[in-house]
Amino acid sequence: MQTLEALARDARALANGEVVLSAPETEVARQMQICNACRYCEGFCAVFPAMTRRLAFGQADIHFLANLCHNCGACLHACQYAPPHEFAVNVPQAMAQVRGQTYADYAWPPALGRLYQRQGLTLSLALAAGLALFLVLAVVLQGQGLGALWSAPGSDFYGLFPHNLLVGLFAPVFGFATLALGLGVRRFWREITPATSGAPLSAPATAEATGAVLRLKYLDGGHGDGCHNEDDAHTLARRRYHHLTFYGFLLCFAATSVGTLYHYLLGLPAPYDLPSLPKLLGAVGGLSLAIGTAGLWRLNLRRHPLHGDAAQKPMDRGFIALLFLTATSGLALWAARGTPALALTLCLHLGAVMALFATMPYGKFGHGIFRTAALLRHAVEKRQPNPIGLGAD
């Protein structure tokens, strides 16, 4: 009977043009009402000061708060109303469920977002393997036999795949990923801006949000000792592994960008040797990325069952696996130069990189972009007068 009543209520709301909240969104709204009355966790992260500026929680508010949450777990372990209390307040899990929903809701095209959300790990590894196999077949056909895989030129990447061919393969994939992610974030930004005062960005707000992103400020548990993983003990492990992963990826991307400048502006084609800048950036970035993703994988396996959304683990692990495979295959490619293993290693590395870029808009890479947008809007909103005149920022 309650289900029929809920369906009838939703049907009336849709008929009147009202926004109908999903079950995870409704749960976040319920928990935020309880938290707004308690406010014990107000100093833990950005979510709770932002919460105190609201008496009601519409869909845009919920999406904003969900992406502002860093899922550190501190509020769950401090909450007197957490399970098994009858209020069953579990903010990290409720926010994670909505956050996962937003990845699919804002994805472009939507069907790819839903597919990756359900089968992230399988899709990531299958795509990387399929692309690598395609490149292997290209080498075999070009060399007229399987022996080409183990007797190709020892150090010449472009002897296997001409530079223009690689550009033709990767440029459309990268362009599509950038377009899809940009369209999704633009829609998210347009939705949450009116819900976060509507004021434009300012230099101080941008600087504050940038600092929070670069330092991963809200993975410190609100007190600097770190958040939680599998138990009640504080740990900075997640923050450190995230830093290694984040900056490792940026260094690898910088290596590719500098290599592009070397090729087109200086006429210096790859491969490069130490102590060239592309090689230094790539080596440090690859090692950092490999260590960071290995640590995040270990923490993901050991995470407290009440943290996050178990349904998103395939998506989380798919992204971690692709990053790890990209880093380790890149390092292996360096070691394989001058050996017959170059062709096979290059195919594996290129397949992993292409799969990573193809899936970027639909998984955990997007969470960093959406979270940055939420932090920017929070930094803007907190500088405006409190609309309800209660609480403190």
Walkthrough of the structure:
With 393 residues, this protein is an all-alpha fold. It is elongated and about 70 Å long. Helix 12 packs antiparallel against helix 13. It contains 16 helices and no strands. The two termini are 43 Å apart. It has a domain of 199 residues.
Helix-strand layout with pairing:
Elements: H1 2-15, H2 23-38, H3 47-51, H4 59-68, H5 74-78, H6 91-105, H7 110-118, H8 120-143, H9 157-160, H10 163-195, H11 203-215, H12 237-265, H13 277-302, H14 313-336, H15 342-359, H16 364-381
Note the main attributes of this structure.
mainly alpha; 393 residues; elongated; 0% strand
Distance between the termini: 43 Å
Number of beta strands: 0
Largest sheet: none
Give helix % range: 55-70%
| Number of distinct helices | 16
Provide the residue-averaged pLDDT.
85
Strand content: under 5%
Roughly how many Å is the radius of gyration?
Answer: 23 Å
Which term fits the overall shape? elongated
Q: What's the helix-strand series?
A: HHHHHHHHHHHHHHHH
Q: What structural class do you assign from the helix and strand content?
A: mainly alpha
Low-confidence stretches: 5-17
Quaternary structure annotation: single chain
